[in-house]
Amino acid sequence: MERLNVLISRTGLCSRRQADTYITEKRVTVNGEIAVLGMQISENDLVCIDGSVLGKKAPHVLLAYHKPKGITCTTDTAIEGNIIDAIKYPIRIFPIGRLDKDSEGLILLTSDGDIVNKILRAENDHEKEYYVKVNAPLMGDFKEIMEEGVEIFNPVKNQNTVTLPCKVKVINEQSFYITLSQGLNRQIRRMVATLGYRVVYLKRVRIMHIHLDNLPKGEYRLLSESETEILYKSIQ
Known about the structure:
Helix content: 10-25%
Distance between the termini: 24 Å
Number of helices: 7
Order of helices and strands: EHHEEEEEEHEEHEHEEEEHEEEH
Structural class: alpha+beta
Number of domains: 2
Shape: elongated
Strand content: 25-35%
Radius of gyration: 22 Å
Largest sheet: 9 strands, mixed
CATH class of the largest domain: Alpha Beta
CATH architecture of the largest domain: 2-Layer Sandwich
């Protein structure tokens, strides 16, 4: 048994809130009877909206999206430049985690709300790789300092915190790759600022085993079967 609004939303037709609106407006029937808010139904019940039989539960989707700079990772469509309006995917999806407005690169989105929560709870176990360019030449011990951890202010705890060890690969005098297993807000920008630098370009190129590769900016793709299988196994 499950709540009627949950079943309706899981088909991808609408959100739970919109499903409640349909029910309140008496547009939903269950086995020919007008539905009521909060009712529990089984998979054998016949649910109709405006006289049309509700479709079967849609399979969940997992997307890799190349977020451009200027797009905000929020599902609030009242915010200009939100990621939902940018993608225009036909069913309701959620970003997994965040990528700040001033950065670009890989972000995952899904229609499976359960996996979003599971991935975020295990965020510090998952690697994320970024390409970063700063405004000045890197000092000789930059790599070692960054890899050991940098002290930054943590507004959540209202105190300074040392970032977890990470991996840095210097590309040239002003750019490097950094792999984090931590997800503090604007972490890389704050780390390099502590060392006297300013990020001029930041691009996420990998999340766990999923790579951005040559996905064009502003485009998305469905994860492959193998990518999806590995992702689900990683959060069991």
